[in-house]
Amino acid sequence: MRDFSDAAMEARLNAFSRKQGFNAWFGMECVAAGKGQTELLLPVRPELTQHHGFVHGGCVSALADMACAWAGSTARGEDVVTSNFTIHFLAPAVGTHLRAHAKTVRAGRTTVTVEFTVNAEAEGKEPKLCATGMAGIAVLGKSEAA
Amino acid sequence: MRDFSDAAMEARLNAFSRKQGFNAWFGMECVAAGKGQTELLLPVRPELTQHHGFVHGGCVSALADMACAWAGSTARGEDVVTSNFTIHFLAPAVGTHLRAHAKTVRAGRTTVTVEFTVNAEAEGKEPKLCATGMAGIAVLGKSEAA
Amino acid sequence: MRDFSDAAMEARLNAFSRKQGFNAWFGMECVAAGKGQTELLLPVRPELTQHHGFVHGGCVSALADMACAWAGSTARGEDVVTSNFTIHFLAPAVGTHLRAHAKTVRAGRTTVTVEFTVNAEAEGKEPKLCATGMAGIAVLGKSEAA
Amino acid sequence: MRDFSDAAMEARLNAFSRKQGFNAWFGMECVAAGKGQTELLLPVRPELTQHHGFVHGGCVSALADMACAWAGSTARGEDVVTSNFTIHFLAPAVGTHLRAHAKTVRAGRTTVTVEFTVNAEAEGKEPKLCATGMAGIAVLGKSEAA
Questions:
Q1: A7-142: what fold?
Q2: Nearest one of D65, D81, D1 to D34, comparing CA atoms
Q3: pLDDT averaged over chain C?
């Protein structure tokens, strides 16, 4: 477990997420959450790929966006939505899992600024950085999940 | 049909897309494509939503990303990948369909710059602008689809 | 005068700007402002150029940033600061003037989302689009200028 | 001197920069450069400030943009221009100096992706992170400076 993580918060986020339409299908799991940071793990399967067999950029973005929103939520303990999001794709997302790590840079009263990385992983290989970027997360108020 | 659109290109993009893992599940349809522009239509269903019942931001991003990549592809007639992508979320994506429109701003030799809008639509209602942004699309070479 | 413009607001913004350190040196003039939009005109001079003789990208960014912040300020009638800013450079900024146009896409309570273009102009030539992008403008409260 | 730095490259970049219109006025100095990284130091003076007395956001952007372009140039040893640039402002830029650090994340053949931070510094105070972001730097070919 990462040193920033809080097991109760992870469990809450995962339970909350599994009830949601897209997340239930998407299948990512929160493996660490707390103190403005999150780590999400997404098993790769054919339904997530594009025409070259890589994980679709839209799925890489969706994973990163969720990591950022949840990081912002743990930073503030409040319900949040993504206000803006920038991603740079660096390498094809190829592997058995994608791991997104999001970290709060600044937790303001109305906006939390978060940076993220997404690595592709496969057994016996070095993780490969496949995307990085930043998000501005808007703070809405007290949350059910965080 | 939009004045920029080319029916043969639309058919090619749709046939190409339906064979792909994520796109086949996602269910969007290209309703116009040509001259550096595309219009994609996505029927909203519960599997695309988040905890408030809105279309998940990750799905809005995925739709916009595809509209941009395809616009870049028609601008250059070559295979492309998204290099970078920025989205600003403006309103909850609520309705029966999302419509993304992407338009090439500049078609360079190695990078195509594209801007996009995503509107939420429902019968009897004005379309609601729910996201806008820009992408840098990297030109790879001759494409199967475009 | 643009149809969105309010002469009193233009005069106020220009008077306010001329008292500021960087703006006084930079030399841009607000030529239209109102209803969430602005148009700024910057005379090109050697002090604004980079090693190819084009206007420096940092100066193009600074002009666009100001156009966005002022557009956000007129949208809300409150003091604002830029929260985030994305620019895509499309062509060398060559000419006698740069003209930035910023337009509010959504004026939220805490964030105003603005899109912009920067055109390079010279007598007898078509304006050339040299940059475009978007900004998230944070609303601070009642302003001296707007 | 930073462990990534190459004194000859620093000297070359500084000599090259002092001959340029905007940079000569702006006054920043390259204090480290090499292996896809740069560190630039900008003395704060009244001509760089905005209406609250902070360094103008346009100047913070200009400094970060240059740090990124130069980082991309050292990564590839070729002439470059900024293609796209995203900045998140985190805190007022107040101090005697701004220090920008840019680091290459991926050096592609046509695009170098760079991330940056800008810290405000003053004697006897902790550096304060005032901005962070990313840039896509387009590779043009062999350079005079790098």
A1: Thiol Ester Dehydrase; Chain A (3.10.129)
A2: D1
A3: 93
Q: Which of A132, A145, A139 is nearest to A112 (CA)?
A: A139
Residue A1's pLDDT is what? Answer: 63
Residue D8, C-beta contacts closer than 8 angstroms, at least 6 positions apart: none
Sequence ranges of the domains in chain A:
7-142
Distance from CA of A117 to the nearest CA of D (A): 11
Count Cβ atoms within 10 A of the Cβ of residue D6 and give its class: 0-12 exposed, 13-18 middle, 19 or more buried. middle
- Residue B28 CB neighbour total at 10 angstroms: 21
As a three-state string, the secondary structure of B22-55 is: HHHHHCCEEEEEECCEEEEEEECCHHHECCCCCE
Alpha carbon separation from D90 to C82, C84, C141, D55, D98 (Å, rounded): 10, 9, 18, 13, 14
**Does residue C67 contact residue C23 with C-beta atoms inside 8 Å?**
no
Is the ipTM higher than 0.90? The answer is yes
**Size (chain A), residues:** 146
| Residue A9: predicted pLDDT | 87
C53: Cα separation from own chain's centroid = 22
Specify the residue for token string 């603005």. C114
Which chain A residue has its CA at the smallest distance from B52's CA? A20
For B112, nearest residue in chain D (alpha carbons): D83
Give the largest CA-CA distance in chain D.
43
- Residues in CB range of A144: below 8 A, 6 or more apart: A16, A79, B51
pLDDT value of residue D146: 43
What mean pLDDT is reported for chain A?
A: 93
Nearest-CA distance A71 → chain B (Å): 15
Give B92's contacts (C-beta < 8 A, 6+ positions apart).
B52, B54, B120, B130
Query: At B79, phi and psi to the nearest 5?
Result: -70, 145
Distance between CA D133 and CA D118 in Å, rounded?
9
Mutation target to probe the D interface, by most D beta carbons within 10 A, among A88, A134, A137 is A88
Whether the Cβ atoms of residue B43 and residue B123 lie closer than 8 Å to each other: no
Which one, of A13, A2, A120, lies nearest residue A69 by Cα?
A13
CA-based R_g, chain C, Å? 14
Q: How far is CA C70 from CA C100, D14, D83, in A?
A: 11, 34, 25
Contact assessment for residue D77 and residue D95, using Cβ atoms and an 8 Å cutoff: no
Whether residues C136 and A138 touch (CB distance < 8 A) is answered with no
Q: Residues A87-122: pLDDT tens digits?
A: 999 999 999 999 999 999 999 999 999 999 999 999
The most distant pair of C-alpha atoms in chain B lies apart, rounded to whole Å, by 43
